[in-house]
Design brief:
By secondary structure, this protein is α+β, with helices and mostly antiparallel strands. It has three domains: 3-26 and 468-569, 2-Layer Sandwich (Aldehyde Oxidoreductase, domain 4); 32-135 and 199-275, Aldehyde oxidase/xanthine dehydrogenase, a/b hammerhead (Aldehyde Oxidoreductase, domain 3, Alpha-Beta Complex); 291-404 and 411-462 and 579-734, Aldehyde oxidase/xanthine dehydrogenase, molybdopterin binding domain (Aldehyde Oxidoreductase, domain 4, 2-Layer Sandwich). 25% of the residues lie in helices and 25% in strands. A seven-stranded mixed β-sheet has the order 3-5-1-12-9-10-11, sandwiched between helices. Helix 8 (323-333) links the parallel strand 14 and strand 15 (343-351).
């Protein structure tokens, strides 16, 4: 279908949730209260690693207003986990699960209090007497892999949660062919999701006797499955409802308050509410993985990449969460968006007694591409080549065979994205790539520079996970369609997914948007659409909605009233790494991105000011262009925080700056002067109307592009983030730059 024929797809229609959110009428989980509700508070561990010997709740249970104290013995199947069920819901003696009496992180919960008020519940928690037997700890993930260190989980060899390998070609042949070799050790830190709505929820028994949890999350049905497992009840007896969510970024993929809320409602038959403070939110939900990457790359004097070698380590913290998937993604992306005949990679996720790490926008891509893109820029510098030119020599293209020895899915647009980003920013091309000069400030202590980086990432679940998305469409009317009801359960975490669902349904059915009604985010009335993650919702839900619309229209033509179409979309299958070689078909679709940045560095204070970011992204088809631009701008600012500001400080497993006054994120005063969004539309062959997912992609290249810009300005490479002023000053002084005589 041509652009001129589309009526709703490709239009910047207003968000369907805009009015309620800007007026404050839309309720978030923390806003919802019901008559007769009780309040819940959680008691977390006092130790990073210890055996809980005893929990005495006798005094707490008799305190004013207290209705119940729950401990490990109250949870029927005391375990949960998104990928591996390795974490107790509550830690302590009397559990049905072996090893659940051990706390492995300060994020472990040991008791729950439910009372008439939040203050009474907090007082009851303080009155609980807990006896611990401290156990040996390990907090450095490099050290944790060494023999003789404390072992956190039975069955993990030297605390290694997982180890993935890629073996392509012959490394010696690659090094023999290399005229230049660059090596680097790269470090990335934690990042806090910092979403607007801290963890909160309400639980109750509904009128069909279902345990109902109203909460913010990213996949309602996954919440149902984990709740039903832990409580040992049928799935159909659990209902999860998402109101407005208030941000997620991967931070709501894993459980926080869902299971304990369900437990309390089931046992007390009363509504129960919980609301975390910002401090609790920062202390007790997972973070982005810190990585340590050692890598070397070799290239010919003509700039052709011939060898990549890397060891990639990630701190998983105390439990698995999504670490196996995050490091698998990093393993794939550590060689960047480039062709290379010889690739040798070992990637590990390692258990420690630190706070668990898990999903965060980019999902291993930002860490891997931080190293890969700096390496490519260092190769360009060593060879005296333009950074865009060397990328155009090596970039993946249609039909490229990746490091995992299989071709990319059709629709590769990385060359076009690199080219357009360069031309829309600081480069010209008249047979060769030339970068325009940048005007330097008059002050001698301020230096300007330009950097470039690119990347790509999967759309949809990877490595053999059974990807799917369900949708239903109901058509009402007599001779014409007067009303369309769409049932699709993808979570709108703030990105505008529900608006896009309505646009796609209107397009697929052929009615005005005003006739479309969306029923989302209630597991009792809508099938599973999968998670709001992996840049997948537009792609997956769009294909499901199109399929449901086709079935509904067929029923309509047969004069069924109402006409109903139900469809579950399943994309091409993927496969996991071969354990020896890494050979696989990891993904069915990708999104492609590149960024050019201009910075100004104060070489005396180390402050980095971002002047301009040009972000080019192939979105396949912009279903709602305004929402696409919003995603680009938001991702750039979030990446800026990751790269230069957000410094989570931990000591012996405890977070020392759990406040937004001490953990700094970008404000309106910090954001780049300009973010130019270059929205490219090279249709994905199997995407709905050609659409690709794109929400994560603009976050991927900013950090390495900033490093390249700082190097361009100062001549100094900084191989660790966040690039706080202290870290920048230390690197500059070590290189003899900016020191006061």
């Amino acid at each position: 279908m041509t652009e001129s024929m589309l009526k709703h797809v490709g239009r910047s229609v207003g968000r369907i949730d805009a009015y309620g959110k800007v007026t404050g009428e839309t309720p978030y989980p923390g806003d919802i209260t019901v008559p007769g509700q009780l309040w819940m508070k959680l008691r977390f561990s006092d130790h990073a690693h210890a055996r809980v010997v005893s929990i005495d709740t006798s005094r707490a249970q008799t305190m004013p207003g207290v209705h119940a104290i729950f401990t490990a013995r109250d949870v029927p199947k005391n375990e949960y986990g998104l990928v591996i069920k390795d974490q107790p819901v509550l830690c302590g003696p009397g559990s049905s699960i072996e090893g659940a009496d051990i706390v492995r992180t300060t994020m472990d919960c040991v008791a729950v209090a439910v009372a008439d008020s939040e203050a009474q519940a907090a007082a009851a928690l303080a009155a609980i007497e807990i006896v611990y037997e401290p156990l040996p700890t390990v907090f450095d993930f490099r050290t944790a892999m060494e023999p003789g260190q404390p072992q956190l989980h039975v069955g993990s060899d030297n605390n290694v949660l997982c180890h993935f390998r890629i073996r392509k070609g012959t490394q010696q042949a690659g090094w023999d062919a290399a005229d230049v070799v660059v090596e680097g050790v790269y470090e990335t830190g934690y990042q806090e999701h910092a979403y607007l709505q801290p963890e909160a929820g309400l639980s109750y028994i509904d009128d069909e006797d279902r345990i109902t949890v109203v909460v913010a999350g990213q996949w309602a049905h996954e919440d149902v499955w984990q709740i039903s497992h832990a409580l040992d009840v049928p799935e159909e007896s659990v209902r999860v409802i998402y109101p407005a969510i208030g941000g997620a970024f991967g931070g709501r993929e894993d459980m926080s308050v869902q299971i304990v809320l369900a437990l309390a409602a089931q046992r007390l038959r009363r509504p129960v509410k919980i609301q975390w403070s910002r401090e609790e939110s920062i202390r007790f939900h997972h973070k982005r993985h810190p990585f340590s990457i050692r890598t070397r790359w070799g290239a010919t004097r003509e700039g052709k990449l011939v060898a990549v070698e890397a060891e990639v380590l990630a701190d998983a913290g105390a439990y698995a969460y999504t670490s196996t998937k995050v490091v698998a993604n990093a393993c794939l992306l550590i060689s960047g968006p480039y062709e290379c005949p010889n690739v040798h990679v070992d990637t590990y996720a390692v258990y420690t007694n630190n706070i668990p790490t898990g999903a965060f926008r980019g999902f291993g891509g930002p860490q891997a591409l931080f190293a890969a893109e700096i390496q490519m820029n260092k190769l360009a510098d060593a060879l005296g080549m333009d950074p865009v030119h060397i990328r155009m020599i090596n970039t993946i293209r249609e039909g490229s065979v990746t490091s995992v020895q299989t071709p990319l899915p059709p629709g590769v647009s990385m060359p076009q994205v690199i080219e357009q980003c360069a031309l829309e920013s600081y480069w010209t091309h008249d047979g060769e790539w030339r970068r325009r000069s940048v005007e330097q400030p008059v002050e001698s202590w301020r230096k300007r520079g330009i950097g470039f980086a690119g990347g790509y990432k999967n759309v949809g679940y990877s490595f053999g996970f059974p990807e799917h998305s369900w949708a239903a469409i109901e058509l009402y009317g007599k001779s014409k369609i007067d009303r369309v009801v769409v049932r699709a359960n993808g979570a709108d975490v703030g990105q505008g997914a529900h608006t896009v669902f309505v646009q796609m349904a209107a397009e697929a059915v052929g009615v005005p948007i005003e006739r479309v009604e969306l029923i989302p985010s209630d597991s009792a009335s809508v099938g599973s659409s999968g998670s709001a993650s992996a840049s997948r919702l537009t792609f997956m839900a769009g294909n499901a909605i199109r399929g449901a619309a086709e079935k509904a229209l067929t029923a309509w033509k047969s004069e069924e009233r109402p006409a109903i179409g139900v469809y579950e979309y399943r994309p091409p299958r993927t496969s996991m790494f071969d354990p020896r070689t890494g050979k696989s078909e990891p993904n069915f679709a990708y999104g492609y991105t590149a960024q050019a940045v201009e910075v100004e560095v104060d070489i005396e204070t180390g402050h980095i000011e971002i002047i301009r970011v040009v972000s080019a992204n192939d979105v396949g088809r912009a279903i709602n262009p305004q929402l696409v631009v919003g995603q680009v701008e938001g991702a750039v600012v979030q990446a800026q925080g990751y790269a230069v500001m957000e410094n989570l400080v931990t000591r012996e497993g405890k977070i020392l700056n759990p406040y937004l006054s001490t953990y700094l994120i970008p404000t309106i005063k910090d954001v780049p002067h300009e973010v130019k969004s270059v929205v490219l539309e090279y249709p994905d062959p199997i995407g709905p109307w050609g659409a690709r997912g794109m929400a994560e992609m603009p976050l991927l290249p900013l950090a390495p592009a900033l490093v390249a810009a700082v190097h361009d300005a100062t001549g100094v490479w900084i191989d660790a983030i966040p690039m706080t002023p202290e870290r920048v000053v230390a690197a500059l002084r070590k290189a003899g730059v900016g020191a006061i005589p």
